[in-house]
Amino acid sequence: MKADLFSSATTLFLMVMQSPPFRRAHQKDPYFKRLCASDRKPFWNIFKSISSSADFRDLFEAATRRDPEERLGLRHILEHPWLTSEDKLTIEDLRHEITKRYEVVEKAVRYKQDMTQETVIEVEDQSEAIIEMAMKDHEEFEALRVQATEEIGSYINKKIRLRRDLKKMKGVGFTPKQQEV
Questions:
Q1: CATH superfamily of 2-88
Q2: pTM exceeding 0.70
């Protein structure tokens, strides 16, 4: 249940802020790491260009705590001031906001459809150049790998020969002198 509420809070963030709060809920994710820190100001500084109320920030932080035992339960979420306050969108404001977001998506779809064949050809030419560069890099890497493998092999063989020679020398009564430091 707590994981579902965490996911719901993340979805709510996406809807309100129009941006995902983090890429992955993992300590290696820089956004998630800031959200889990005791001082969450660095996390909210990332989104400072997007207005959000203190109540929303409080609800999101409480529902996405790193430790599931510290997260708000469903009853507390439903009673949270952000959900119970009188300062809510009217139906008309909600319709306007949804229409505005729909238009942004439609504009992006039209833009993608309006790409000309010339742009596609240009991208194909760039792709060929990138593939050529990648092949050259791969060849250089392979040459370096072979060289490193040979050098390591040579070093290991030298060490083996030295140990074998040292064993032979010890077998005939030779003991190397310890060098003074």
A1: Transferase(Phosphotransferase) domain 1 (1.10.510.10)
A2: no
